[in-house]
Amino acid sequence: MVFIMKILIIHGQSHEGSTCTAARELAAKVGGEIREFFLPRDFNRSCLGCYTCFKTDLSACPHYKELEPLATAILDSELLILDSPVYVYHAAGPMMSFLDHFGTWWMVHRPMPEMSGKQAVAVSTAAGGGMKSTVRDMADSLEMWGIRKVYKLGFGVQAAKPDEIPDRILRNIHKKTDKLARRIRKNAGGRGCNGRAKKWFYLMRFAHRHFPPMEPDYGYWEKNGWHGNKRPWNS
Ligand SMILES: Cc1cc2nc3c(=O)[nH]c(=O)nc-3n(C[C@H](O)[C@H](O)[C@H](O)COP(=O)(O)O)c2cc1C
Q1: Nearest atom of ligand 1 to the alpha carbon of 19
Q2: So where are the chain's domains?
Q3: Which of 87, 124, 131, 165 to mutate to test the pocket of ligand 1 (most atoms within 8 A of CB)?
Q4: What is the pTM of this model?
């Protein structure tokens, strides 16, 4: 049977270096329709801190016109890959600025039921150190958006460019991307929520019951039945 998955890669850099290559290798091995955006080329705004999204809706964000194609592509994907090179031990600025725009998607604000059918991967490469904190920068959002399964892939490549990567490290990249691609394909098609986001959902549900309601979050939960028996991952 031919296996087609809707794959979206959002690159935290606009060049096609080691990180982009590793992310593309993984996507190709999973197999499917692959769509890509590059930051800052395809979205170059920083959050203004105006709170419009929290007070009203993300669609009222002053940057929504530029953000909308990427937001729609995320919601439409089955596998989302975010990648970034390590820059001073963290994800590149354009990726962080992009993710800042999705605070309302976090489980503690307005959970997105669409996330329950997705898998995601945070990919990073560094010369030698900072892969863990960089994949964590991206995985924090992927997990707190409620994506069902979130994987982390970091490589120390001892290189500034793909053609400088030593063979033994390339072999390790091939091996790890093979293994993760198999896992992603095996886990395709289900619904659910990762444990971290689920825990925060229940903490927030408790807060909604015992503290003064914060709108519009409270009304959104009420409308969706999440103060009752319904849950974002099976509604
Ligand atoms: C501004 C800047 C900061 C960097 N910071 C780190 C770092 O903190 N740790 C590290 O090991 N490599 C660091 N590097 C090296 C890159 O992370 C590494 O070469 C990476 O594989 C480049 O990926 P790319 O080819 O996708 O750009 C830095 C590179 C740049 C340009």
Answers
A1: 26
A2: 5-224
A3: 87
A4: 0.97
